[in-house]
């Protein structure tokens, strides 16, 4: 306790520079704790979403619905690119289960309870009321919704209206949700990526904040040691200051996170929105922040004061320190060897997969590479300085001699920026892997809508929507036109040859204006006879269209899940009588399969025809929503990594400007020109940073390739991401050069070289 109080007295009474350093340590620690709390809270937000979805899920009796009991039927439809959930409930006389979370009672026939987001959507799109038969009785509470933007409704009805597809309701509440925000296997990869993007740079950043102004602090601690303080007591004095800064920073960081959670919970992120209570800091997170960060600062503070406590005379006389340990370089080489080994298997016929021991070795190799890269920077800076210090250039000689004497400064200044480039490369690999898993194998995405529920104006607007490249109609044959016919009939695609070509991968033998048989060699053909189609004309007059089996055949190659494969006939639009439309048909729209285009087209369809069911061929709306959430979390992780890296650089540069004022003053007094001083300071940072960035690019690409190889996708070598990484590295170098300019200053104070 005595050493702790002494450390606090030194903190408060050792001058303005020491108080500035303490403020930097506190503010830097608060930023790090805020990012740490955010990373630790993301799983809690996802779990809260899944927990409410599970709590409201109906538990059903097996078998047909029992008369007199409460019946239920669920619908999960897309409204644009958003899921739209509806639960129809018919209360029975034999039992009345407890209402689901968010409701005080089950809806009676003709009553509708809607979510607040659906209530607002009904104001903008009154046509949606056709999907909600009944009068709006109230709103669903937050306990019954997964997020504030969810479209959800409970609708009261009768057993006769539900039909035989309904089931008997036991109660509400299951152990697992019907679908998760993020699939568990994907969540593991997401956690690993966020740990690399955020937690690894965060640990380095907090260590950097705990070692600000290491040289001046070591001289002060060495003076205490020479005055008779014990070695352990000297270390505890230093640790007291770092622990106090870390503790205040942790408290301030938790406050910053609380404010950030309140703001972001109301605005939301793309594809992800939550209630502010979901993002509340848990007791475990508070314990990690308030205990873990000061504990880290304690160990870092004791370690940084070890040299001053053991050799106080050498510290006071600024003797040349020992060369950095080779051990950290071996850690980097070992991690690089693991990732390179996994990447090399991509060149063989049997690439490695992320199962068994590989599921541990590959992430361990990536973390060892990133951590070893940072810890090996002092060794690399020392070796580079010793080699270049023999040159005849004055500025280069001065810069390298300083780095040779103090190689650890490279770790504090450039480590955050080096980790930023390394993490950016790994994040690119995760995004490439997600793109491979989520994208459609076809370049074309189709959307099917029942034509009988679309007006002529809606059909015209749908065909003219931005993003829709082509449209066609698939007519369904009608058996009622000839009930005695035994021949099998076929559906027909009403389209031109150009439309058919746009919907398929390859077309051969198509002739415009002729009825032709459609044949896909990959799926095989089945025999059929004359097909009959029912048409409507002039407000309801029924016509029959008979299409005999054509002699000519058009061959095509399908691409993925498509409506074209349902049709065996190609009927030109001119074959239909003027003004006649099919009585039973599907309007097929097609766009690019790019996820952003698919989402935009689905949203546009929902605006034009909100009550019409849309079947996006081969696309799962919930999977599309999940992909958006994953990308949002990855982007948030990259932004946090960027903030941490830039903050580490700014804090270190500011500390460096204060720490080296006496050295700059001494060089200026013996005649060094300002241009030479600026060059010296720039070289001291840029050269170690340049070496670190080159290694970060190589190590990052190897880590990215190892991730892609073990992920099982088709893309192993992400060459498209190299220019982006090079641009990032160039930007980092420019930022480093600009950041070194304040180090020289304009005012020379000779008193600085007399201060201790």
Based on the model shown, name its key terms.
alpha+beta; 22 helices; 19 strands; nine-stranded mixed sheet; seven-stranded mixed sheet; 756 residues
What's the helical proportion of residues?
A: 40-55%
Task: Kindly report how far apart the N and C termini lie.
Answer: 26 Å
Report the β-strand fraction as a percent range.
5-15%
In total, the number of strands is 19
- Class from helix and strand fractions: alpha+beta
The number of helical segments is 22
How many strands, what sense, and barrel or not for the largest sheet?
9 strands, mixed
Label the overall shape.
elongated
* Strand order in the sheet with the most strands: 11-15-12-16-10-9-18-8-19
Low-confidence stretches: none
Summed over residues and divided by their number, the pLDDT gives a mean of 79
Rg calculated over all Cα atoms: 34 Å
Give a verbal description of the structure.
By secondary structure, this protein is of the alpha+beta class. It is built from 22 helices and 19 strands. A nine-stranded mixed sheet has the order 11-15-12-16-10-9-18-8-19. Strands 1-7-2-3-6-4-5 form a seven-stranded mixed sheet. Strand 4, helix 3 (116-124) and strand 5 form a beta-alpha-beta unit. The longest helix has 40 residues, at 16-55. The two termini are 26 Å apart. The model has no long low-confidence stretch (mean pLDDT 79).
């Amino acid at each position: 306790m005595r050493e702790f109080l002494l450390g606090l007295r030194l903190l408060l009474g050792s001058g303005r520079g020491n108080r500035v350093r303490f403020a930097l340590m506190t503010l830097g620690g608060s930023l790090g704790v805020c990012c740490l709390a955010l990373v630790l809270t993301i799983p809690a937000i996802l779990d809260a979403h899944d927990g409410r979805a599970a709590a409201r899920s109906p538990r059903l009796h097996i078998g047909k619905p029992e008369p007199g009991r409460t019946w239920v039927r669920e619908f999960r439809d897309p409204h644009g690119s958003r899921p739209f959930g509806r639960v129809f409930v018919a209360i029975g006389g034999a039992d009345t289960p407890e209402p689901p979370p968010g409701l005080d009672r089950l809806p009676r026939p003709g009553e509708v309870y809607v979510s607040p987001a659906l209530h607002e959507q009904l104001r903008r799109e009154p046509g949606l009321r056709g999907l909600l038969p009944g009068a709006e009785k109230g709103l669903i509470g937050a306990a019954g919704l997964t997020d504030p933007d969810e479209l959800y409704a409970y609708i009261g009805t009768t057993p006769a209206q539900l039909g035989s597809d309904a089931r008997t309701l036991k109660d509400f509440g299951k152990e697992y949700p019907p679908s998760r925000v993020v699939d568990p296997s994907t969540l593991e990869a997401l956690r690993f990526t966020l740990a690399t993007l955020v937690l690894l740079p965060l640990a380095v950043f907090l260590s950097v904040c705990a070692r600000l102004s290491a040289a001046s602090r070591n001289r002060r601690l060495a003076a205490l040691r020479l005055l008779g303080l014990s070695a352990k007591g000297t270390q505890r004095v230093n640790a007291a200051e770092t622990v106090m800064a870390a503790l205040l920073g942790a408290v301030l960081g938790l406050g910053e996170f609380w404010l950030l959670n309140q703001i972001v919970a109301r605005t939301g992120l793309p594809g992800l929105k939550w209630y502010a209570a979901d993002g509340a800091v848990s007791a475990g997170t508070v314990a990690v922040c308030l205990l873990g960060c000061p504990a880290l600062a304690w160990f870092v503070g004791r370690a940084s004061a070890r040299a001053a406590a053991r050799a106080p005379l050498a510290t006071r006389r600024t003797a040349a320190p020992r060369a950095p340990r080779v051990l950290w370089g071996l850690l980097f080489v070992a991690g690089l060897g693991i990732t390179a080994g996994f990447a090399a298997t991509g060149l063989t016929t049997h690439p490695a997969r992320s199962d068994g021991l590989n599921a541990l070795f590959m992430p361990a190799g990536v973390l060892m590479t990133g951590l070893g890269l940072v810890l090996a920077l002092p060794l690399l800076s020392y070796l580079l300085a010793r080699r270049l210090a023999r040159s005849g250039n004055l500025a280069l000689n001065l810069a390298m001699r300083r780095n040779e004497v103090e190689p650890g400064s490279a770790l504090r200044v450039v480590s955050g920026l080096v980790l930023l480039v390394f993490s950016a490369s790994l994040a690119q690999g995760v995004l490439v892997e997600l793109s491979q898993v989520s994208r459609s194998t076809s370049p074309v995405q189709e959307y099917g809508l029942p034509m009988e529920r679309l007006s002529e104006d809606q059909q015209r607007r749908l065909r003219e929507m931005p993003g829709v490249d082509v449209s066609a109609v698939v007519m369904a044959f009608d058996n009622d036109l000839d009930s005695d016919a035994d021949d099998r009939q076929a559906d027909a695609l009403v389209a031109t040859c150009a439309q058919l070509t746009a919907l398929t991968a390859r077309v051969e033998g198509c002739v415009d204006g002729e009825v032709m048989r459609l044949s896909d060699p990959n799926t095989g053909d089945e025999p059929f006879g004359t097909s009959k189609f029912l048409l409507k004309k002039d407000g309801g007059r029924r016509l029959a269209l008979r299409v005999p089996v054509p002699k000519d055949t058009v061959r095509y190659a399908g691409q993925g899940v498509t409506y074209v494969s349902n049709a065996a006939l190609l009927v030109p639009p001119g074959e239909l009588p003027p003004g006649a439309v099919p009585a039973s048909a599907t309007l097929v729209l097609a766009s690019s399969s790019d996820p952003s285009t698919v989402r935009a087209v689905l949203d546009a369809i929902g605006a034009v025809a909100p009550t019409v069911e849309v079947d996006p061929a081969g696309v799962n709306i919930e999977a599309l929503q999940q992909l958006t959430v994953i990308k949002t979390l990855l982007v948030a992780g990259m932004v946090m990594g960027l903030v941490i890296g830039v903050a580490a650089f700014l804090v270190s540069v500011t500390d460096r400007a204060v720490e080296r004022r006496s050295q700059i003053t001494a060089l200026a007094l013996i005649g060094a020109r300002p241009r030479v001083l600026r060059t010296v300071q720039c070289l001291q940072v840029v050269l170690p940073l340049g070496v670190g960035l080159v290694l970060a690019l190589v190590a990052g690409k190897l880590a990215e390739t190892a991730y892609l190889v073990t992920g099982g996708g088709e893309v192993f070598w992400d060459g498209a991401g190299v220019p982006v990484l090079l641009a990032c590295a160039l930007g980092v170098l420019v930022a480093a050069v600009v950041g070194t300019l304040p180090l020289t200053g304009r005012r020379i104070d000779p008193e600085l070289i007399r201060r201790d």
